[in-house]
Amino acid sequence: MASSSTPTKYQLSFYVPPAHLEACKKAIFAAGAGCYPGSGNYTEACYTIVHGGVGQFRPGKGANPHIGSVGELETVQEARVETLCVGEDVARRVVAALKQAHPYEEVAYQVVKMEDF
């Protein structure tokens, strides 16, 4: 378990249409994602799966979908991005930036607290 002086690390994963991939990555990196602590000073680090993923959804009556139509099942090619956020404040800023940059009304993302062994 991380010591009390070491900020908690979080992994952010999200799905995005390839046409919006770079805009979302730019937004999350500007908010502090992808920065590894330590002497290497690595920034803008992430893992991206671009080909092979297909998202699926059916917008409900109150939806205003970016892609597809209300009541119709929609499938769309999506990329998956995984990156590191160091500190809860950074993770929260990054998620807020992702939601602003992402084209979807409801952004599919996960934030997972990591352990440092």
From TrEMBL:
<dbReference type="InterPro" id="IPR015867">
    <property type="entry name" value="N-reg_PII/ATP_PRibTrfase_C"/>
</dbReference>
<dbReference type="InterPro" id="IPR036069">
    <property type="entry name" value="DUF34/NIF3_sf"/>
</dbReference>
<protein>
    <recommendedName>
        <fullName>ATP phosphoribosyltransferase</fullName>
    </recommendedName>
</protein>
